[in-house]
Design goal:
212 residues; alpha/beta; two-stranded parallel sheet; single chain; globular
């Protein structure tokens, strides 16, 4: 196992902290200081050498000490594309709607086509996947769910029991806090739905299959 700290901050504090830890498996890399946080995520993922990856943001934390071990064990099955842990959300500035969204999705069978309008997976720390894919840096509001959708298009998901990941919910330091989420989501949903990986025709077929 390795921990890669991909840092795109302006100051030296994080670099100095990692150096002071002096833990061999914790490695610091200079993240892309492009102004786009997604470039920083991809910088860290591109440095990964393991067979499985999980991206933990600054406002996420792991709860269950067996979470990653259980997830990697499930990824031994070649038909499994990703392992999803349960998220416990702690609201900061305003309550999170994730708990309700996840319940609705669970009742609906968690269809992948529902992700752009209802993120039932939650934060990236709850999503363990095989190394390879990167996030789409031109997306903002739906960058995570677009990634989940692409990964889950290659295989099935396995869900773990118990609270695995903690998230700080909605707060001012989030990437999406400075944008109009409805307007951004509308534009990006159209782009995703008409893209080569998920055409409108394919989405209609998925809905019909789900309805039965």
């Amino acid at each position: 196992m390795e921990v890669i700290v991909s840092d795109d901050s302006a100051g030296p504090a994080i670099r100095e902290h990692v150096a002071a830890l002096a833990i061999p498996r914790v490695r610091y890399v200079d993240g892309a200081r492009s102004g786009n946080p997604v470039d920083n995520w991809n910088r860290g993922l591109s440095e990964a050498g393991g067979s499985a990856c999980v991206l933990v943001h600054h406002d996420e934390f792991l709860i269950d000490p067996t979470y990653l071990r259980r997830a990697v064990d499930r990824l031994d099955d070649p038909e499994v594309a990703a392992v999803i842990g349960h998220t416990m959300v702690t609201g900061v500035d305003r309550p999170s709607r994730f708990t309700l969204a996840s319940r609705i999705a669970r009742a609906a069978g968690r269809p992948v086509w529902l992700l752009p309008s209802l993120n039932w997976i939650g934060p990236t720390a709850a999503f363990v996947f095989r190394r390879g894919p990167l996030f789409e840096p031109t997306l903002v509001q739906l960058v995570d769910v677009d990634f989940y959708r692409r990964v889950l298009g290659t295989g099935r998901a396995v869900f773990l029991n118990g609270d695995c990941v903690g998230s700080l919910g909605h707060h001012g330091a989030q990437i999406t806090a400075s944008i109009d989420p409805r307007q951004a989501a509308r534009a990006e949903i159209v782009r995703i739905a008409t893209g080569p990986e998920l055409s409108f025709h394919r989405a209609v077929q998925d809905v019909r299959a789900w309805v039965g």
